[in-house]
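User: I'm putting together notes for a lab meeting next week and I want to include a structural view of one of the chains we've been expressing. I don't have a solved structure, so I'd like a prediction I can at least talk through. The sequence is below, exactly as it appears in our construct file.
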Amino acid sequence: MTILCVRFQLPPRREAALPELLGLLEEFTPVVEALPPDRALADLRGAERYFRRDAVELASVIRVRALALHGVDCAIGAGPGPMLARMALQDARPGVTCAVPGEAVADFLAGRPVAALPGLGGATARVLCEYGLDTLGRVAAAPLSTLERLVGAKAGRELHEKANGVDRGRVVPNGVSLAHSRLHSSGGTPVLATERPFTRDESDPDRHRRALLSAAEELGARLRALDKVCRTLTLTVRYADRTATTRSRTLGEPTAHSAALTRAAYDMYEALRLQRARVRSISLRAEGLDPAEQASHQLTFDPTDDKLRRIEEAADRARARFGLLAVLPGALAA
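Assistant: Thanks for the context. Below is the predicted structure for the 334-residue chain, given as structure tokens.
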């Protein structure tokens, strides 16, 4: 058990505390993946060796520190891989870690409904249930050819592996923590990324745009905190059927200005013409990062833009002095 899936028990209006709590996890391992609004994955393989404690023992320390330093309890699932840790979290409750040892994976999965499998869409689950494959144990025992015929070749192979406890997922650091921001690399190039998953498949364009606004504001704040600007912005929209669309745009000038990032994100989104598509998550990635001191800003003589930049500067000073909660996500859009 080397992977933890942590759900912080954040009360209403405290979702902006997630980056601070991710910083707590980063004290144990740099391999932390944020799952907004209240969850995170942490790969503790290195931490187990360094602290000479197993993942369940480290989970207890994390819980105590979250309570002592932030007043936030958490539920934690532990497993050999991200998928199993997420599924273990379904049985966890505050104060108790639900752990799935490697030797118990088959028993853990056998009686669970197929809908409990992370990433399995509702339509696929209904098809499987119609053919009597309503539990992961029955899916695991079904011939691979049957699954491929029901849900497609690639999806059938993935489903067969997961139902048999084969977890090929990995924790991908996405650097949401502002106070502990880290650049990660894509093909050797530094990038910053953030994702906004929906609690259920979302078809409302207004909610899509609000997610884009929140993500763009976060990227802008993180870029400014690191004294960086980006030259390219990439939008990825993931759908209910597990497909995705990715679009990139080279910005008119390198920027860390949240309003400019938001405009670019909106333009890419509108160009997709989704027509009420069911969206599972929206992510933005800032690429082509350069030092802010090397960037030039084209004066626009637009009083609205100037006002937004002054608000940003004040918000950034407030964050630096009082922490992330000094300015909540979305405040700049008010």
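A couple of points you could mention at the meeting. The CA atoms of residues 24 and 69 lie 9 Å apart. Residues 175-188, 319-334 have pLDDT under 50 and may be disordered.

User: Perfect, that's what I needed.
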